[in-house]
Amino acid sequence: MSTWERSESSSSPSAPSWFSQFWSSALRSKPLAPPSETTIRATSDQGLVRRLSLFDLLLLGIGASIGAGIFVVTGTVAHDTGPGVTVSFIIAGGSCVLNALCYAELASRFPAVVGGAYLYAYTAFNEIIAFLVFSQLMLDYHIGAASIARSLASYVITALELIPFLNNNIPSWVGHGSEEIYGAFSFNLLAPILLVLLTIVLCRGVGESSILNSVMTVTKVVIVIFIIIVGVFEVDVSNWSPFAPKGFESVLTGATVVFFAYVGFDAVANSAEESKSPQRDLPLGIIGSLLICIALYVGVCLVLTGMLPYKSLGGDAPLADAFTSKGLQYVSVLISIGAIAGLTTTLLVGLYVQSRLYLGLGRDGLLPSLFGEVHQTRHTPVHSQIWVGIVASVLAGCFNVHILSHILSVGTLTGYSVVSACVVTLRWKDKTACQVFGKSISSRAEGLICLITVVCCGFAAGVFYRFGASFIFLIIAVIIAIFAAAALDFRQVYTSTPGFSCPGVPILPTVCIFINIFLFAQLHYEAWVRFVVLSIVTVGIYAVYGQYHANPSSNTLIIYQKAPTEAD
Q1: Cα 501–chain centre separation
Q2: Separation of alpha carbons 286 and 104, rounded Å
Q3: Are 32 and 60 in contact (CB under 8 A)?
Q4: Coarse DSSP helix, strand, coil percentages of the chain, rounded to the nearest 5 percent
Q5: Cross-strand partners of 52
Q6: Confidence of residue 7 (pLDDT cuts 50, 70, 90)
Q7: Which of 73, 136, 482, 525 is the most exposed place for a label (fewest CB within 10 A)?
Q8: Contacts of 326 (CB under 8 A, 6+ apart)
């Protein structure tokens, strides 16, 4: 059976032009094998090893989501929002839960292979969209890994300077970074060394990296819980009044900021090929890790805003400052240890996810086959892992990547939106064309138009909100999105899926898309430019390399579960 299928709209003439060939290739999609098929990737030298239990997956998601930010972001946002920052974290967490439900369904339907959002887009849409999703995600991952490595190096040096004879005797270029040259170049010695060490651990095997992640994540969570327990006895409830001193609008704005504190739960979806029981454990790992993170963030927020008036919060270390003001200096030491553990796990999981994404594209031929190779004894994508480590090391060692932080999160929001759309499209039953305004249009095309309408409305609403436009424009955008969602609900036929099933399809995924694109509109305008420029570059790379090397006879056979075709 062929592992590729052409979109119905991608037919080309017998002597196609270059453009028609490009279009035909771009619209290729990975088909779902019939449910009756039981072909699965053989546990050969090219396969990964299933070693991750549900507990490992939970720790993987927590390790990716909670870094040093829990000790910093909570206080900085509370300074602007007040005690209502707790509600901000709940709203943002609830939004992420909706996205997690979408990820959980697809992780359950695609339990046999790595790829995450890239794989889902490849199956639900086409080759070019999948490649675009990969590129947007990967730029976030590369810059994010370098930025986290520099932060980790800085925290390590700060901890070492607690030793008297090292205090003020370590040159800044060792860990904090040298002075900037031309506004971008800044040498850092320790960050690449840390990246090399973590890359070696990841190359040795998923077992070794899982042990390191488990130890660091448990350490981090225990410290956070200890901080919450100690802080409870220092809470003055009068500090919680007024709860939202600047109104609900500031709480909502705070939610758009702290949304990104939860980013990372999707890392669990990329461990599909290494999970012992992927269909059962992946959904539980995704949703469970996110719920634990929400509880930890809310607990820290309540304690922090109860210990000190919100106006006195802020600075570089608000949580440490709060405990120091209460005479609990030893807690500051624990916070530093927790920050180091948090950054280590976030960096480790980020490097892990990147290599698995490269592995998926290498197998599919969209990148050189070198990236698709798995070590025969270690059962890890060593080449992909080394490449990821090299890129992060160069960026972290030579550049002040913190200045690029305002263009991050584009890939994350893009990936979340595409995953939500995949849940909707993969649930559609095959139907004949229908009549819309007297013209024949396929059911799939009509559904895609509705999804695009929701995307446009979400962006428009975000722009209106960001620039303070009249409230009526925001309402109009929301109403149009509601009509589009209603059309998706009433004019399409959906089926339930085996395994975990996202509730409320298509409404819930549509809400996810709207919220994600709304948040996208809140990003710095340079992030919008980055999205457009990178998309153009990606299409160029695909046109030159990807379309010619994508492997239409790949022997990567996987169990895919598809909704049954509608009976005639």
Answers
A1: 21
A2: 6
A3: no
A4: 70, 5, 30
A5: 275
A6: very low
A7: 525
A8: 234, 307
Write the CA distances from 5 to 8, 164, 335, 546, 557, integer angstroms.
Answer: 9, 66, 53, 17, 14
Are the CB atoms for 317 and 72 separated by under 8 Å?
A: yes
Rg from Cα positions in the chain: 24
- Of the candidate ranges 21-30, 65-74, 230-239, 517-526, the one whose mean pLDDT is the lowest: 65-74
Residue type at 180 in one-letter notation: E
Closest CA to 50 of 106, 113, 100: 113
CB 192 within 8 A of CB 398: no
- The upper half-sphere exposure of residue 87, i.e. CA atoms within 13 Å in the direction of its Cβ, equals 15
Render pLDDT for 198-254 as a digit per residue (tens, 0 to 9): 999 999 998 899 999 999 999 999 999 999 999 999 999 999 999 999 898 889 889
* pLDDT score recorded for residue 33: 54
Q: Tell me how many helices (H) and strands (E) the chain has.
A: 20, 2
Which residue is associated with the tokens 């060394």?
A: 193
Packed helices 127-160 and 410-427: angle between N→C axes, nearest 10 degrees: 140
User: Would the CA dihedral through 12, 13, 15, 17 be positive or negative?
Assistant: negative
* Three-class DSSP category at 508: helix
CA distances from 390 to 134, 189, 191, 478, 484 (A): 19, 14, 12, 45, 45
Per-residue pLDDT for 482 more than 90? Answer: yes
Q: What is the DSSP letter of 505?
A: T
Would you state the pLDDT for residue 3? Answer: 42
pLDDT of residue 108: 86
**What size, in residues, is the chain?**
568
What string of DSSP letters covers 223-277? Answer: HHHHHHHHHHTT--GGGG-SSSTT-HHHHHHHHHHHGGGGTTGGGGGGGGGGBSS
- Looking only at the bridges linking them, the beta strands covering 434-436 and 439-441 are antiparallel
Residue 1 pLDDT: 41
User: What angle do the packed helices 329-364 and 127-160 form, to 10 degrees?
Assistant: 150
Average of per-residue pLDDT across 453-466: 96
Gap between the Cα atoms of 402 and 393, Å rounded:
14
Question: Phi and psi (nearest 5°) for 515?
Answer: -65, -45
Q: What per-residue confidence (pLDDT) applies to 16?
A: 59
Bridge partners (DSSP) of residue 181 are 185
> pLDDT of 366-394, one tens digit each?
999 999 999 988 889 999 999 999 999 99
Q: Residue 435: which H helix or E strand, with range? A: strand 434-436
State pTM to two decimals: 0.88
pLDDT tens digit sequence for 135-178: 999 999 999 999 999 989 988 998 888 888 888 888 989 888 88
Q: Is 5 helix (H, G, I), strand (E, B) or coil?
A: strand
Q: How far is CA 231 from each of CA 66, 74, 227, 317, rounded to the nearest angstrom?
A: 19, 14, 6, 16
Tell me how far apart the alpha carbons of residues 504 and 360 are, in angstroms, rounded to a whole number. 30
CA distance 357 to 354: 5
